[in-house]
Amino acid sequence: MAEGKTESPGPKKRGPYISSVTSRSVNLMIRGVVLFFIGVFLALVLNLLQIQRNVTLFPPDVIASIFSSAWWVPPCCGTASAVIGLLYPCIDRHLGEPHKFKREWSSVMRCVAVFVGINHASAKVDFDNNIQLSLTLAALSIGLWWTFDRSRSGFGLGVGIAFLATLVTQLLVYNGVYQYTSPDFLYVRSWLPCIFFAGGITMGNIGRQLAMK
């Protein structure tokens, strides 16, 4: 009498994600490096736009790159991007609320494009006063969260990131590291928290996508 054969379950099917790396530490390191370089690239592009429009001004002696940006800006933005991108999926996991809204790379790319557009608007679009610009960018930033995130944790982290980043920027400007033209919110522009909020949501979406299995 032939014994019935039990088929062993095949390997779990995985998508083309970094999470296919079995070692958690290697997985974390790769995601951190990828997020760092994405942050560096976005910082170079967006900071160049701000400098060309004379929104931010650096002392001549710190302009030290072909992108006319202070050397420390890209590494700082890259580090912040890595921390934010790793923090979002970590918070989702600890809250037991995996983020499943629009989880595909095409949506993430659209989110990045909208974020770049918001930053572009802050430098290019002329309003009668900064209040109108700030309200417009605030609406666009919340619209970005609603379109590509819609999670309470994402909104809360975005607000926290905007607050901390704006505070750090205020301290940097106060100490003369660089300055903003026509500041209307202490030492910076009133729309700056909107940019930081949108940036946090964008890097969080990238981090969540990289962490997917």
From TrEMBL:
UniProt-annotated location(s): Endoplasmic reticulum membrane
A Pfam entry, by short name: INSIG
Topological relation to the membrane, as annotated: Multi-pass membrane protein
Superkingdom: Eukaryota
Keyword Transmembrane tagged: yes
InterPro entries: INSIG_fam
Keywords: Cholesterol metabolism, Endoplasmic reticulum, Lipid metabolism, Lipid-binding, Membrane, Steroid metabolism, Sterol metabolism, Transmembrane, Transmembrane helix
The keyword Lipid metabolism is assigned to this record: yes
Transmembrane segment boundaries: 28-49, 69-88, 131-148, 155-174, 186-207
Subunit and partners: Interacts with SCAP; interaction is direct and only takes place in the presence of sterols; it prevents interaction between SCAP and the coat protein complex II (COPII). Associates with the SCAP-SREBP complex (composed of SCAP and SREBF1/SREBP1 or SREBF2/SREBP2); association is mediated via its interaction with SCAP and only takes place in the presence of sterols. Interacts with RNF139. Interacts with RNF145.
Function recorded in the entry: Mediates feedback control of cholesterol synthesis.
Family: Belongs to the INSIG family.
Full protein name: Insulin-induced gene protein
